[in-house]
Amino acid sequence: MRRNTSASSRTESNDQGEPITEAKPRQNVDSLNFLSVLFMRRKLIILSVCSLVLASFLLTKGFDNTSEQSDNWHGKDPVKKGENSDIDPSNKEKTPVPQASDNKADIKRDGHFQRTPNLLWWTFEGGRISNNINCGEIECLSTVDRALRDHDDTKVFIFYGTGVELADLPLPRRKHDLWFLTHEESPKNNDHLFSHPEIMTLFNYTSTFKRQSDYPIPTQWLPNLSYLKSRQFLKSTATKNEFQKSDNLAPILYVQSDCNTCSDRDSYVKMLQQHIKVDSYGQCLHNKDMPDHLQFKDSMAGMHHNDFFELTSRYKFTLAMENAICDDYITEKVWRPLHLGSVPILFSSPKIKDFLPTNNSGILIEDFERVEDLAAFIKRLNEDDEEYNKYLSFKNSNGITNIDLVRHMRDREWGQNEHGQHKKYNNHFSAFECFACKIAHRHLHNIEKKLPLKPSIASVEHYGCPPPKRFDSNGKHIVDDKRWTEPFLYSKYMAKAFRYSYDKGVILKEKYLKQQAKYLRSKDGE
Q1: Pairing mode, if any, of strands 138-143 and 131-135?
Q2: The CATH number of the domain where 301 resides is what?
Q3: pTM for this one?
Q4: Phi, psi of 183, rounded to the nearest 5 degrees
Q5: The three-state (H, E, C) secondary structure of 71-136, written as one string
Q6: pLDDT tens sequence across 498-509
Q7: Which of 118, 172, 426, 454 has the fewest beta carbons under 10 Å from its own?
Q8: Within the chain, what is the greatest distance between any pair of CA atoms?
Q9: Is the pLDDT of residue 315 over 60?
Q10: Could you give the 3-state DSSP secondary structure of residue 265?
Q11: Where is region (Disordered) located (predicted)?
Q12: What is the number of domains present in the chain?
């Protein structure tokens, strides 16, 4: 008998070649053996695949954190003029990325790991230090360490306006860098540089006194509404009248030591003094001395002394005149006399009425055709106690009738509430940092997920002010003044020269910027 052992046939034949079928039990045993071998092979294959996946995972985790973060970026950096290619991974080891020693690598939120963005203050106010900031569910590293400029997590650069210099900007600018500008002062503090679109459109987000900015702070100098309603230093009108007689006080107070500013305020006061008595305690138009301990010899600290508040509150009127005239630029010069109960004579934001506690809590010089008309009005009001008291009606309970001001102060998320308790943020700088932190997280997320990037672009409406003017002989602020238009024009053409080179991808030193600015100005005939 011959046995056929082929895998496809399980039969035997006798000597005559007739097939003999195997018994059924033998078939079951062979089938079971075949299935067992098949299942064992499949298990070995699955185990091998799992081992390969695990090994790959372990190898991937072996890379350093910097390389892992760098691989997540898909942006293009315009490092050189005309360059627009993807970042070459082979360069990672040649240029090590600085690490933030106090920065957390990731934060876990909603089951996912997210990187912690750096907010790099390129220019800053005061003694700012690096520290982690908590903004609810997210964190950021607020830092002044310029060594982190090229860090993968540094996409937000914050600039404090006064310190910005065209020769000291983080250039060349990478494709995904966002620039934030914050400043509570007027553009005058940086030679009107931010009054020109060529500079303002460099920035993506802003926080300024203007309501058009991304994070507006027009009431930065107003602690809360209780500050306006305070009666701590308030004198009755009868008492003020008595001080005018007993202490020989003028009806009007003027205290300024920053003289000859671009608003030309001293010129107006000088004209006003020809028609009504004005006591001037500061260095500008000085005609009356402060007590020794309140002198402004070395600092302006005396202006925060209770004795200074006591003196100011004795005056029925106070000249509140800004050093620069811009929409929504309102400083302590306006809020202090309101706090002390002295009616302000205002030369301030053209939109100042939007922020006054009542319709008649201030006197605007622009409402008078001539200086002598204002003087005559003040004299009449000084003699009419009933009319004068109407200007202080906001000191009464529920006396603030400006609903927009009440709503603005209620919704403001920084500073103090009406009970002197701190709100979400202590000050507008902290609030702006968290505003920037939220944008930074969204920006990094969109980059990593290759989502569309649509950053905001600032405009001159976010901060800029018109060219300075001076007063004419009637007290109208309408005359061009070369003393102040010259610095304005100088910064205008420096801005144009810088922007021209910036758009070309060329970094010019200050010397060549000035030459280019001079050429552009001569070309325009200004």
Answers
A1: antiparallel
A2: 3.40.50.11660
A3: 0.77
A4: -165, 130
A5: HCCCCECCCCCCCCCECCHHHCCCCCCCCCCCCCCEEEECCEEEECCEEEEEECCCCCCCEEEEEC
A6: 999 999 999 888
A7: 454
A8: 150
A9: yes
A10: helix
A11: 1-24, 68-106
A12: 2
CA nearest to 143, candidates 131, 152, 161, 160: 131
Q: By three-state DSSP, how is residue 206 classified?
A: strand
Q: Is the pLDDT of residue 313 over 90?
A: yes
Q: Is the bond preceding residue 197 a cis peptide, omega within 30 degrees?
A: no
Q: Which of 498, 231, 519, 471 is nearest to 369 (CA)?
A: 471
Is 503 a domain residue? Answer: no
Tokens representing 7 are 């895998």
Q: CB–CB of 201/450 below 8 Å?
A: no
Confirm if 469 and 479 have CB atoms less than 8 A apart. yes
Domain that holds residue 374: 225-411
CA atoms 341, 343, 345, 346: torsion sign? positive
**Contact at 8 Å (CB) between 491 and 195?**
yes
> Is 275 within a domain?
yes
Alpha carbon distance 308, 280 (integer Å): 13
For residue 315, the number of C-alpha atoms closer than 13 Å in the C-beta half-sphere is 29
What DSSP state is assigned to residue 263?
Answer: T
Walk across the sheet containing 178-182 and list its strands: 131-135, 138-143, 118-123, 154-160, 178-182, 205-207
Whether 279 is in a domain gets the answer: yes
Q: Residue 443 is which amino acid?
A: H
Last residue of a domain, one of 61, 90, 108: 61
Q: Residue 173: helix, strand or coil by DSSP?
A: coil
Kindly state the tokens that stand for 52.
Answer: 């390969």
Give CA–CA dist 75/451, Å, rounded: 11
Q: Which neighbouring-strand residues pair with 347?
A: 321
Q: How far apart are CA 81 and CA 283, in angstroms?
A: 52
In degrees, to the nearest 5, what angle opens at C-alpha 313 toward C-alphas 309 and 316? 150
Query: Has residue 359 been placed in a domain?
Result: yes
